[in-house]
Structures are given as C-alpha cells and as structure tokens.
User: Fold these one by one.
Assistant:
Number 1:
Amino acid sequence: MKIGLALGSGSSRGWSHIGVIKALNEQGIVPDIICGTSIGSLVGASYVAGNMSKLEAWVCSLSRFETARFFEINRSLNGFVNTERLHHFLNKFVASDELVIEALPKRYASVATDLETGREAWLTEGSILEAVWASISLPGLFPAINNNGKWLVDGGLVNPVPVSTCRALGADIVIAVNLNGDIVGKHFQQTKAVAKPTSDIVGKITGLVSEYTAAVLPVTKTKMQPPGLLDAIAGSVNITQDRITRSRMAGDPPDIILSPKLAHVGLLEFYRADEAIDEGRKCVQRMLPEIEHILGIN
C-alpha cells in the first residue's frame, strides 16, 4: 500500500507541514509519494532531499527583520521578492541546483499554474529547485518562472491541495494537509480589531504601490479607510484558495484530511514558524485515531 501526502498551499502557514511530517514519521507513517503546491512544494522538496531538519532549524530562528530582507523595492514591478536571497535560501535548506526529481528516493511532484492557459502543471522531472520556484511564484510577490517555454505561477490558483496529483502518481491512500479550511475573513477581522504597527514588508510594498498610484488616482479622505494593501491581497488569496480547495476536494476527496488551525497567522508572517510547526504536530495527534483506523494500524 502506497501512502501519498498532499501538502497544500498557504504561504507562511505552510511551515506547519514540517510538524505534520515529523509527527507522522514518529508514528511510523512514512509517505511514499509527496506532492506539494506552493509552500507545500517547498517543504515537501526539502523533506525528500533530506534537508528538512536544517530547514526547520532555520525557519524557527527567523525574525521579522530577516523576513523583511527577502523583500525589496523592485521598480520593474515583476515582484517584491529578493530573488538572489531566495535562491541562496533554497540552495541551502531545500536542494541544490543540480538535484533532479528523478534522483529522489521518493516520488515527488510540485503543482504550478500555466499563466497562458490557466491549466495546472505537474512538475515531475527535471530540476527540483525549478519545480519549487514555479510552484511558489505567487503573482504580485514573485515573478513568473519560465519552464520549457511556459510561464508558470503559484499552483494554489488551480490546485491548492494536490490530492489528484498524489493519486496519479500511484498513491493508494492520500493524506491531505489543507491550510485553507478556516481562513476566510479571519485575517481581515483580526487586523480591524487590533491596530498593528506597519512592518518593514508592508511598508516597502505599500510605499511602492502608493508612489505608482498617487499620480493617476485621486486621493479621497473618508472616515472609513479601505483595508491595507497586504490585507486585501491576503483576503483575496484566502477566498480564492478556500473556494478552489472545497471544489477540488469535493470531486476528489482524500482519505484523510489534516486541517491545522492557523487562521491567526498572516500571509507573510514566516517568522511564526514555531507555532505553525507545533500546530502541525497537534493536528496529527488530534486525528491519530482516524489515521490509524484508515491505515489499518493496530
């Protein structure tokens, strides 16, 4: 019996995948097939390449300032991510440029979106780093990635939890990690309730957009202020991924669904890895009786 693990998209909430994988392994549950979308592809690639422990140690040491250093003012508007710094991070904690998917000890696939056709792309061969990079390229933050003549962006736009990919690769039982189960509206409500100081990341992105829009859009002062730029982006991504996830899993339900409770973690709060990983572990523990029942573990 082959076990497939479908690691879903969810930006910074995706560090919970580390806790999920570790908790499953501790119970003797080792997946044969790993498929990931967006942050799920990154954590999954690090796991199958044997680098997840290094990745965990680093993300747990990440500060707000270190997170902000991954973002920069890019006046070409291709994206806000410092691609050189990101490349160094991926090389050190995910995989080398030379490692190819065919050489991995487990079946692996990442999911991206073809920007021209809107179809999902399953990356199952070639450079694992390129496969990850394509899958995490969230529009507006990352530039699109060219892969075999196709411009690819974040796979969460079409298949946020790649259950279907796991089954296509031969999984008999699919364990799906859905990071989008309780997020719609939560981040926006929390932001309205508690006024937070502007972070370096928000300041950089908002400042750049304001500079480009001030010349063409009239400034209107009203009592009700619109949501901040990142709140609007986060809310939009949350709604899109939640609706797509519900639709896809209704048509192709996994055998086991793990849904870490991470609605309080913001889109780019990558420095909150400790609590995300801990919730990933707790999620497995809550579902352990059902997992053991379905897998036939006594």
Note: The chain has a mean pLDDT of 84.
Number 2:
Amino acid sequence: MSIPFYVSPEQLVKDRAAFARKGIARGRSVVAGSCADGVLFVADNPSRTLHKVSEIYDRIGFAAVGKYNEFENLRVAGVQYADMRGYSYDRADVTARALARAYSQTLGAMFTQGPKPFEVELVVAEAGSRSGADELYRLTFDGSIVDEPEVIAMGGQEESVQAALRSGWRQDLTLAEAVRLAADALSPGKPGDEGAHAAQPQAASGSAPGGLVLEVALLDRSASGRAFRRIGGGELADLLG
C-alpha cells in the first residue's frame, strides 16, 4: 500500500509564493504615481506591440508586470466587468476600488485553488478631480490589495526603483518632472531579457537615459470622459528634456 504524498499547508503556500515572485522578478519594472496632471504610468518596455499599461474605463487605468498572457487575460476581464457594470447601472458606478476587489478575488482563488498562481502583479488606478484625490491600488499574486497614496513600483529591480522614487516623488510634481523622475528611477540596474515573460510595448514609447525604452501613459484629470492617453514621440522627448 502506497503512502499518499503530503505537503503541509504552510509549505505549499511558501512554495507557491516563491514560484510567483520568481516569475514576477523576471519582468521589467513599472511605475505608477499621482502627479499634478493626473496618474502617470511609466514602464520599461522594449516591445512595440505588447502593452504593460492600458485603459480600463473612463478614468481608470491598468498596469502590470509578470507573465504577459496571464495579465492580458485579467485586463480583458476587467474591461468586460467595467463595461457590464456601467451598462447595467451607471458609468459613475465603475470605480477602481470595485475593480480591484474583483481582481483580488480572482488572484486569491487562483493562488489557493488553481494549478499554479498567476505570475503577475497589477496596479489599478483612478484619476480624481484634483491632486490628492487619485486612487492607486496594488494587487499581488495572492490577491492582497494595498492602497498606495502616491507612487508604486513593481517588478524587476523593485526595491531600488521604489527607493529612488520615494526620495523625490510628490503629488504636486508637474508631468515633466514626474516623467523624468520615473525614467531616472528605472534607468539603473535593468534586469535581463524576460523571455516568455516578455511584457509589453509602446504605442507611446521613447528612449530615456541609458538607452531605456519607455512606455508612458497618463490618466489626465483635466479631460472630460475618457482620461487615458499615451505619450510618445516628440511629446515624450520634450518631457524628458
């Protein structure tokens, strides 16, 4: 009679978390932060066709690091959720908080019950009517949600990028100041090729210090209706100075 294979719940959780973290760390970093003009997204992304940063709804944006096919499926599900809720109730009922809760349930269920956890981390952000009223939610692979008041860094050299941002980030930064600070923070110590985790693009992209290729987008708080816009080409070059 064979003895069933047994792994303690504590060890299983540790193994799943280590697996997810390893996959996420292969990705290049993404920064999302609140500035005077709205919510800024800046991603280190060499691809011109696969986006790390996208629009979800009128004033809601999405950014991710990790395994592309997994977070792209989550992005599409978020768009469908937002469209259905806005159609069934009211467009004002679609909020970043509600979307973050829905993502949390999906990630948590996959972490505890799925064949493997998603190798992704997400940011869901909503531009407020004024500086200080923006909402930024970070979601980790196990479904945990963190409400970040100012700026978030994920993936790659996350700790060094976060440290560089924390030393200079303010919610009253101009768009140009915020873009330059994010680019400078992303420049040192880039990780190697992402291989199967290769995430994303740039319909709005440009070169930054050290040959860094950026994908940049803004949730513009001054816009009426849809606030998401990509920043690239000459506009990005001017912002980088």
Note: The helical segments are 9-25, 68-88, 96-113, 158-166, 175-186, 233-240.
Number 3:
Amino acid sequence: MTTLDEAVALARDESGLAVVSTLRADNTIQASLVNAGVLTHPENGRPVLAFVTYGRVKLANLRARPALAATFRSGWQWATVEGNAELAGPDDRQSWLADADQLRLLLRSVFTAAGGTHDNWDAYDATMAEQRRTAVLVAPTRVYSNG
C-alpha cells in the first residue's frame, strides 16, 4: 500500500510536480501540472495533499465537482492520490479560515510544503492576493502506485 508521503516523495526531485485531473461538466477530464506537497490541515491536523491554484477552469471544475486525482512520477515509477478538494481562498471561505492574514499564511505554507522558497515574501503575498490564488487541500481517499 502506498502512502500519501510516499506518493509525494516521488516528485521531490521534480519540484513536487504532479498532474492534477479534474472532471469537466461534460464528463471529460481536464489535466494540468501543479507543485504539490503534504501539509497538516489547519482545522483537523490530518495530513492532506496541498497545492495552490487560480484561474477559472480548474477552480470551476473543483467547485462543482470536487473529486480529483493527482499523479506524481519519477522515471517509470508513479503514484496517484485521489480525494475531494477543499478550497480555501478569497472566493472560497472556510469557517476555519478567519481572515485574509490566515489565508496569506496558508498560501505560504502550501507553497513551502510543495518545496517552494521565496526571497521576497511581501512580493509573493501581493501576487497571491492580486491573482486571487486559492489553496486546494485534499484528504486522500485512495493512494495507489505501480510500485
């Protein structure tokens, strides 16, 4: 059995890159590349897959149909994490996200969990706010691999 940590570890040398697949309204798959990592959920303390996104397609899909799959790879080894997205952003408020400052800190936490670093956090925060970035947290319901 593959764990969440083992799945994400596959992409450690690839900047945490994962292919995230969501379901469109017409039941076709929409896939995109994200940087993802493991984060402790701010409300319940459980480990979740986390990434940051913006834009209309992926967020619209996840708002309407929160199921997703994220696949990590290293060479020919791969692992997939499935679950339902919980969105936390300026347009997707959560009861455990009290204010804009908590969102700012959450976006930073997701970024660093995915292996990101930044020399100017104020500039990072400004970009996240301007682009209305949203944190996507996924409690795994299934994790599997070819290994």
Note: Strands lie at 17-23, 29-35, 37-40, 47-53, 67-74, 77-88, 134-145.
Number 4:
Amino acid sequence: MLLADLAATSQAVAATSKRTEKLALLAARLREAAPDEVAAVASYLSGELRQRRTGVGWRSLQGLPAPATAATLTVIEVDAAFAAMASLSGPGSTATRAALLEDLWSRATAVEQQMLAGLVSGELRQGASVGLLTDAVARAADLPLALVRRALTLSGSLTEVAAAALTGQSLEDFALVVGRGLSPMLAATATDLDDALSRMTMPVAVDWKLDGVRVQVHRTGPDVRVLSRSLDDLTTRMPELVTAALSLPVTSVVLDGEALVVDAEDRPLPFQVTASRAMSVVGAGLRPWWFDVLHLDGRDLLDEPLSVRDAVLTELVPSSQRVPRLITSSAAAAHAFATDALAKGHEGVVVKAVDAPYEAGRRGGSWLKVKPRHTLDLVVLAVEHGHGRRREWLSNLHLGARHGDGFVMLGKTFKGLTDELLRWQTARFRELEVEDDGWVVTVRPEQVVEIAFDGVQTSTRYPGGVALRFARVLRYRDDKAAAEADTLDDVLRLRT
C-alpha cells in the first residue's frame, strides 16, 4: 500500500465530523492492507508510529527536502525507515538518523510529508481515536465488536489485535497471561465531587488520587515484571515493587496501582521526584500503592465487580501498600474523605462504581477523577503551525509569565482548542507576527490566555525553571493587557 493512499484516508477522516463516515473510511482502508502491512496501517491510522522512540522530534523536521512530485513510498518502507532510526545508538547515530530521515522526506509527496510530520510530532489530529479504530477493525474483519474489544483489553496492543483479526487468526486465543501487560483502565473526568456522585449509583468507592507513576505488576512464582501505563518494562528500575510483590503469599498475581515517593510523614514528594526515581534506581525509595487486583492464583478477576476485587485486595495486600478507599452511600462522608486526601497533599479522588468490572483499555463512566483546578492568565509568546486536521491553522501555544521587564516561557499546549478558537487565534497571531520560520511563528507578547493546569513542577526544559502539568486553554482574555498577566513568582508559589 502506498503511503499516499493512507494519507488520503487520513485527510478524509479529518474532513468529516460524522462518526459513521469516519468508521467506513477506516474500515475500507484496513480491508485493503496486506497481511504484512496491517500493523503499520492500523498504527498510522490511530495517529502513532509503531516505534515508541525513534530519536526524531519536531526539531528534526526543520530544513528537510521539498516534497516529491510522485507518490512512490510504501507503508512497509516507511515503517522500516523508522525502525532503522529507532535502532540507532552510539557515536554517529545522530548523523545516520538525520540522513535516513532526509532520504525518507525527499521521497514523500506534500500530503505524505504532512502525515509523517503529524506522526512524528504526535499531532496527527484526524479524529480517529483508539475506540473508533477498534470499531473499524471489527467491521473490516467482520467480527463482533465485543470480541475485538476483549482481545484489545487482554493484549494491550491495537496493532497486534488488528493484525490478528485481519489475517484470520482467532481472537479467542487472546487471554489474560500473567507476565504480559494489558491496557490499564482509565478514569474519565468529573467537574467536581458532586458531579461525580450524581453520575454514580450509591454506594460508591472513593479512592485517593495519587500523583505517581501508574504501574502494573505481574508475578508468577519468583518472576516479577513491573510495567508502566504504556506497558514499558520498568522492572529493573523499581526493585522496591519487585520486593513488595515477592512478599505476598501467592503463586501468581496481577496488581494495578501507583508508585510514589513520600516523605517521613507519608506526604507525597513532587511528581518530578517520583518520575526521576522511576527512571533510575538511584535516589529516594518508591512505595507501591495498589488499588486493584486483576488475577490471583489462576483466577481472573477482570469481570468481577469492584466490590469483589476490593475484598480480594484487602485480604491480600497490607494496608500500608493500598490506596486509601472509602465505600460509602453518604455524600457528606465522600466530601470529608476528599478533603482529607487534599490536606495530605494528594491530587484529589477517584470515584468508582462498586458494581463495575475492570474495563481494561477504556475510559468509561465507571471511574471518575475529581481534582481541583488551577488557572493562570499567561501571555502567548509564539505559536506553532498545526498538523493533520489542524494543518491550515496555528495551533500549539508557547506560554509565558511576566518576569522583570519581560516574559519567561513556562511550556506549551494545544489542549482545549476548539475549531472556533483555532480559526480565531490563527488570524489573531498573524496580526501579532514578528517572525515565521516555517515551524514556529514568534509573536508580540500582547495576547493573554487563561490556562487551566493540574500542577507546577520543576523543569530544566523551559527558561522559567518550571513547567505546567496538563495545561489546557480555557479562554482568551481580551479584557486583560499583558501587563496584567500572572508573574513567574505567582507560578512559583503554586509549585508543589
């Protein structure tokens, strides 16, 4: 299959807002994929490269060759090129990777270059979510949707499931295998605790929401694997979790939870401390905080309600390693529990339906996270050209806070931007344009934007020395001048 065909489908999917049309387009393209192309085609249609780390970022895309005039690149060739880039390391790897990227780019047409840029940057905004693509795989393979979703739940890999489904392999063969990661269940967002409670049937479970590293631990006898939220292997970096798993009186188990560094009073240290420790065995000790059990000694628990899984977890794991949980029918008790979680330095709470199974790989209504929202009024310092569905607009904002006589950058965001805001800000920032290097448009620091975020953490990436976690646009503040924006000192006071 030519990459141009895939890029055309991507553009067509992005151009329609109708789910049925998106689904038909995706399914048709999947059906046309050859057996050795299916995994890459499914991955690209979901907006991701198959390789987790290629060493290629948005800066690598500057100064690349002009588009080719004829479409010759195949999906297999593109996948092989990125696989080659991902395999490079050591002296000379940067130059070799750049040469491979330049060769790939020189063979790509304009529409193919747009798709490749979106895949590399992670901004292929075409409106094809994992859920939609899962439905498309089921339609393309003429299989029950429930069967495909179940296989995805147990494998953790949509590309693996797509390849099996579209090459005639039995999806019944997918089962929970201790040692093989499965996609974690995710929480949707509630505006506040009352909103979360109104969307649940009492009683509910209310858990502390920890700002740690999501982990999934598999143990079979003496063998333990620690996996990240994205199923990367963290075993050698988290010996404390291996020790904790081996201390349990079991033969086989799969646990879901968080790894977190706390102080002597059990208060969480800043997220970057935990994140840094998770990348190295040097530093403060990690502590496991389990909140779910998915398998125990040959018994799969995925389909059991949370009430059953909670009872198993309580019996199995000491309280010092469990996320605090309240099962209650009282809104007042839930509020008091949430207040206590915040007072102890945690992010908030997660409200969970006690009668719900573990819906691996899904962000449904059975888990609802509740966190207080922080906001800042910041100034836009620059804006990046969009990709994929946003290719005609200016998208990613460079955010700055007042500092001294100027502004200092805190980070970037393209979250929260509706099509209406994208159109408005494209026109607005063209008015304020100072320079356009083809990737970043530098603007006069005049436009104030209200940003919501989950926290402030230390960062060496940006000049301000801090970065906003999960920043997203709430609205533009035309009623405020840049001189009224928040200062770096205001931001530093929010640092945890």
Note: The chain has a mean pLDDT of 88.
